[in-house]
Amino acid sequence: MLAISLAGCEGSRNNSSWSTAKPGDPIVPALTIAEQKSAGLAPGAAMPATSEPAAPEIKSGRGVGPVDHVDISSLDATRAMKGAELFPVKCSACHKIEERYIGPALTGVTTRRQPEWILNMILNPENMIQQDPTAKALLAQFIAPMANQHLTREEAESILAFFLQHDSGQAAPAEAQTAPVTPPAQPASQH
Amino acid sequence: MQTFKRFKWWAVAIPVVAGFALMSTQCAKKPTSTVMTGSADKVYVAPGSYDDFYAFMSGGFSGQVSVYGLPSGRQLRVIPVFSQNAENGYGYNEETKPMLMTSYGFIPWDDAHHPKISQTNGIADGRWLFINGNNTPRIARVDLSRFETDEIIEIPNSGGNHASPFITMNTEYAVATTRFSVPIPQQDVAIADFAKRFKGTISFVKINPEGKMEIAFQILMPGINYDLAHAGKGPSHGWAFFTSYNSEKANTLLEVNASKNDKDFIAAVNWKKAEEYVAQGKAKTWPTKYYHNWMDHDTQSAKSEVIDQVKVLDPADCPGMIYYLPTPKSPHGVDIDPSGEYIVAGGKLASVIPVHSFSKMLKAIDDKAFDGDVDGIPVLKYDAVVAGEVANPGLGPLHTEFDGNGYAYTSAFISSEIVKWKLGTWEVVDRIPVYYSIGHLMIPGGDTMKPWGKYVIALNKVTKDRYLPTGPELTQSAQLIDITGSKMQMLLDFPTIGEPHYAQAIPADIITKNSLKFFDLTSNHHPYGIKSEAEAGVERKGHDVHVRMSTIRSHFKPDNIEGIKLGDTVYFHVTNLEQDWDVPHGFAVEGLGNSELLVMPGQTRTIAWTPTREGVFPFYCTDFCSALHQEMSGYIRVSGKNATIQLSSNSK
Description:
The complex is a heterodimer.
Chain A lengths: L1 H10 L21 H7 L37 H14 L18 H4 L2 H9 L1 H7 L1 H10 L10 H16 L4 H6 L6 H6 L1
Chain B lengths: L1 H17 L3 H6 L11 H5 L9 E6 L6 E6 L4 E5 L21 E2 L2 E2 L9 E5 L2 E11 L4 E6 L4 E7 L18 E5 L4 E2 L10 H4 E10 L5 E10 L2 E7 L7 E7 L8 H4 L6 E7 H9 L4 E13 L4 E13 L8 E6 L3 E6 L5 E6 L4 E6 H9 L3 E5 L2 E4 L1 H4 E6 L5 E6 L4 E6 L4 E6 L5 E6 L4 E5 L12 E6 L15 E7 L6 E8 L6 E5 H5 L24 E5 L2 E9 L2 E3 L2 E6 L3 E8 L8 E5 L7 E3 L4 E6 L5 E6 L12 E7 L8 E2 L3
Parallel strand pairs in B: 13-18, 36-39, 38-44
Antiparallel strand pairs in B: 1-2, 1-34, 2-3, 4-5, 6-7, 7-8, 8-9, 9-17, 10-12, 11-12, 12-13, 14-15, 15-16, 16-19, 17-18, 20-21, 21-22, 22-25, 23-24, 26-27, 27-28, 28-29, 30-31, 31-32, 32-33, 35-36, 36-37, 38-45, 39-42, 40-41, 40-43, 43-44
């Protein structure tokens, strides 16, 4: 199980430049995108087998939509807190963090996708699922199309901050409310 | 070939039955002769492209408003107004049921005749559409950003609200008038006392800047039948004009007995003067009872208030407020040209179309050019007010619209044609047969100060052989006619719902720029609305069970409910958590005794279900919402009256 899910999520990524960061690094600052991604590649990080199926390997570009570039250095803990408040209202009807629900489990999403891709998927899902190869593959796997909940860019960035914080191993307040299957402390400690 | 044969039958039959030799020259043409090359191009709107105009047509006895695109004639929507609509739960769900409350109780139907788009400076502005309920006198206001009925006000002291709503040029007022005079206030009297005891009223319904309606005052009128209306504009702003028939005051066989006098009246009401009289305290306050219902957008739920008095003006106390213009003969429509000067009457039994002059009317009033009075209302001399008469206008002229280029277009019911004539010279310049028996006609903006004179629509009462037969009950229809050239050109037939009486049309971009795509969930303050699945759940209040349920592609939360007992009523409060355009979800549970719910994104709608047997009953989404729509379902368990099963749901 573990092997499959690791292979499915990250296992084939062997670019050596991705392996410089340590688990638990602060989300913010100086890490490159690649380094941010690698933060989720903590040795032994457990992914429930119910997250994205193993089959197609998914790598993402920046996606299709309004976001060409995002400066994640501005996404601090305050923004992550806002994202944690938004997540139950805007996302949790279809997404849980640690397990597949209607859509994929979102743990590790910032290590699988470019931050711009995540924002474009939130802000422009209709075009993403038609034009972006990664989003198209996800639609084929999950069948349910990503819903456009008409977030503002600021809201979407806050949710991204929440994901980044989660994947960096810091506290994830919303998790406690929305995913009781996983004890709240665990996601943080596992990464 | 077959079509041509059928047509020939009509070409002969109509004039023979009607007995008018004039007709044979009109209808002897082949129908194809009026449909010229290029018609298809003029109505073709390519797939994915938009129409240029919205047309709003009264649904007549359907009680609703239908929305069409022009020039394609494609039906875009039916807006439920006065009738319950099981298709989306209007009038069945708890949020909209109050909209149909009246002093007679809950009324699930009406007969809707005359849509009117709100105006600013005499130009259609696309904010709201007003329409009258004829049978149980009411006026409704439809919000054109949402295409939903926002408000309905009942009109007390009325019978048959036909000459309505016909708003003023800055949407200050809508009017409401008795078609059927009745004892006012209502009482138990002999019908034979009609002439003595029956009265009419003209109501002025004030519209505030947010659209909200309130009856400002009613004018007690002589007991004859008031038919149609239009408000003045430009120089005649401040006046409103009402046709009447049955000046004979007949109360039986009106077909004959109300058609004896050579002239009936147009009532010219100076409503600014009436406002002054109200301000001076001339109005009497009468006890009455009527409902006023409106949608509270904060809670997404309609509210009702019962109002118990109304201000009534008696013309005897208010000199200079009303004059009668003698008008041949049983006039139907009264239409004011874009300049506001000409008052055109559709004298349905007259051999000419009389056109009154507003400026001559003012002079006649100054000169006291009166020809007696009716119950104290001065009757002006016909010759002192008439500007001209259109000769040979077709048989049974009913209504007139204007193209803004100096021409008027009058519908002729009996001879089934539209007659085009020139304002000022009164000469007929063109005519076109329509199929069949036209009532109203409509040019976009054609009753305002700014017509968009590209098309005229014929709104026909009879279709007979125009469409594939559908048994005894046939559709009524509209016909689209190009009026940009010197000759009218028939472009298109399309069927309508119910009976299309009047209609309105407006360039599409005026509406689309304000069009709402979904309700903002954060502004949804419905008492049982929820913002996320985490708030879903069940709650018992005695024998009422409230289910706070969410929908999003493609599941309900909760979708397993137990602990319902026979004798309970279950209120499903369904909130659609989607925040995107065109993603409604539906809800229905087996044995639901009223209608489904159709819930727009960000909206909460409630349906009440009283189970009648024990068991486990499925519920499901009725609106195909995604590839996993068939999976969007759940179960509710109903136990016996004395069962001890606790109310529960899988909502956390």
